Amino acid sequence: MNNKNPHILKKMRDLQQAHWENTFLQKPDMFGEAPSDPAVKAAEIFRKEDITTILELGCGQGRDTLFFARKGFQVHALDYCEAGLRAIGEKAQKSGLSSSVITVEHDVRKPFPFDNDFFDGSFSHMLFCMALTTEELTFIFQELQRVLKPGGIIVYTVRHTGDKHYKSGIHRGEDMYETGGFIVHFFSKDKVKVLAKGFDIIDISDFEEGGLPRKLYKVTLHKPLIP
Fold first, then answer.
1. What is the CATH number of the domain that holds 42?
2. I want to staple 73 with a disulfide (CB 3.0 to 4.6 A). Which of 7, 9, 27, 68 is the partner?
3. What digits encode the pLDDT tens for the residues 5-29?
4. What's this model's pTM, rounded to 2 decimal places?
5. Is residue 108 part of a domain?
6. Residue 39: inside a domain
């Protein structure tokens, strides 16, 4: 099925929020409690660059959020699923990390609720390969450009077009395909470069994750000190 009606495609993308909310309610530890490998590597980069305040986009159920907090970072954990954010707050409180974690319920397709030059760094694991159009992604990166301090670092991951599931399932516009109820936007390296406008690209690395395995890029960007 390849439905090209833009109104239907938008409706299907918008339904993803309810799907994730329901999934998090049914599976409180869907991704486990251990941090993702990209978060571990990002923490090393952030520490090396003297970064202390992090904006985590698409924090999910908080496995990376709590890891960053334990490592001494101040984390603003942003997601549009209330169930996941509630779980993060509870886990942070039980772990004595409440002072290091601020949860924010927010849809990244809307302006970020933060001042200019607010964060030292940003991290997101597979948020950008959710049901987001290129236009919406461009807006998100513009917002990151705004809220990051000069010299700020972004580390993010996305599934790419070499992934086993690319072009499988139901086509939902652009390079988005739905499998098992989840819509994934697969990135080409060219898309990574286009979205990096205004940033310096430090690194684009291939890696694999999970049993499939998923094939992803880990991307590291730097906001120039002088625009």
1. 3.40.50.150
2. 68
3. 555 556 555 655 555 556 654 565 6
4. 0.88
5. yes
6. yes
Distance of CA 185 to the CA centre of its chain: 12
Strands 200-209 and 214-222: antiparallel
The answer to whether residue 227 sits within a structural domain is no
Instruction: For Cα atoms 140, 144, 150, give the angle at the middle one, nearest 5 degrees.
Output: 160
Residue type, position 36, single letter:
S
Q: What is the pLDDT of residues 156-209, one digit of tens each?
A: 999 999 999 999 998 989 999 998 888 899 999 999 999 999 999 999 999 999
Q: How many domains does the chain contain in total? A: 1
Within a domain: residue 105?
Answer: yes
Q: Long-range pairs for 91-97 at CB < 8 Å and ≥24 separation?
A: 91/62, 91/66, 92/62, 92/65, 92/66, 95/66, 95/69, 95/70, 97/66, 97/69, 97/70
Q: Are strands 214-222 and 53-57 parallel, antiparallel or unpaired?
A: unpaired
